[in-house]
């Protein structure tokens, strides 16, 4: 069972671009699991403004970009069409993380 829904946000010859709607808010545990796939960058805006949310981005050269907001349910994913298996891996990690929360 999938713990998310996704829509293709843009048709492109070189990339798959998807927006995932998760059943749970994004937590640091999910970010840590996904960070195995590339370089993690976190923007801790809440340190400077308590009403702001923290953002993250995970990149791997021109192959992968994952971005989202901590405590939000949306995750944006861009994956090179040369490596569609990365999408399956991302979805597996989301399901594993979501199962732990259930």
Detailed description of the structure:
The structure is a single chain. The chain is an alpha+beta fold. It has two helices and six strands. Strands 1-2-6-5-4-3 form a six-stranded antiparallel beta sheet. Strand 4 and strand 5 form a beta hairpin. Helix 1 runs antiparallel to helix 2. The two termini are about 10 Å apart.
Keywords for this structure?
102 residues; alpha+beta; 2 helices; 6 strands; 39% strand
Number of beta-strand segments = 6
Molecular shape? globular
Total helical elements: 2
Strand order of the largest sheet: 1-2-6-5-4-3
| Helix and strand pattern | EEHEEEEH
Percent range for helical residues? 10-25%
Helix-strand category? alpha+beta
Rg is: 13 Å
N-to-C CA distance: 12 Å
Q: What portion of the residues fall into strands of 2 or more residues?
A: 35-45%
Main pleated-sheet profile: 6 strands, antiparallel
The overall pLDDT, averaged over residues, is 92
Low-confidence segments: none
Summary, kept brief:
The protein is an alpha+beta fold and 102 residues long. The protein contains 2 helices and 6 strands. Helix 1 runs antiparallel to helix 2 (85-101).
């Amino acid at each position: 069972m999938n713990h998310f829904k996704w829509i293709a946000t843009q048709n492109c010859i070189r990339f798959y671009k998807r927006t995932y709607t998760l059943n749970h808010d994004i937590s640091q545990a999910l970010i840590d699991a996904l960070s195995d796939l590339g370089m993690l960058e976190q923007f801790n805006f809440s340190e400077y403004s308590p009403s702001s949310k923290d953002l993250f981005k995970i990149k791997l050269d021109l192959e992968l970009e994952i971005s989202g907001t901590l405590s939000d349910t949306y995750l944006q994913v861009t994956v090179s069409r040369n490596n569609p298996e990365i999408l399956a891996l991302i979805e597996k990690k989301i399901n594993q993380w979501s199962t732990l929360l259930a």
